[in-house]
């Protein structure tokens, strides 16, 4: 049986820096916004090496837990200056950073509330599809414990979804495979 190499049409990278620029880049809110925080981390491959040609995208609610989107069950609400979306390529060291506002809780299934979180999509070389995960916040222990999505993850793996406090926001490393692999969701 012949073996063939993966062609550019079969992988999401390394073409990210060429085909997926975003005018606002890593700024879901304007740089310098007083209540803004950084979510920073490193994207690692299965061998534990940084991925220098990945792309991190985020989508989230505003601090009141609202989306400026028609699918928000409470109705779309625009927050001036807040884009709710960020996109950041990883650098030569696999590092990324998104400047945003900490989100509020959002409605969940059956009238429950989901803990404040940020949805994250990861694109990288060798991947045929994006992977999707979430960032939860360490100071939201009670909300995290009641979150229907986070509580569906086995206890030992939940820590891979909770950011760590950092000087100017939060640290959230993403491991695509291997030891301490980040939990990804099938969406």
UniProtKB/TrEMBL annotation:
InterPro entries: Intradiol_dOase_C, Intradiol_dOase_core, Intradiol_RC_Dioxygenase, Protocat_dOase_a. Keywords: Dioxygenase, Oxidoreductase. Its EC number is 1.13.11.3. It holds the Pfam family Dioxygenase_C. One of its GO terms (molecular function) is ferric iron binding. Residues 29-178 form the Intradiol ring-cleavage dioxygenases domain. It comes from the Bacteria. Belongs to the intradiol ring-cleavage dioxygenase family. This is Protocatechuate 3,4-dioxygenase subunit alpha.
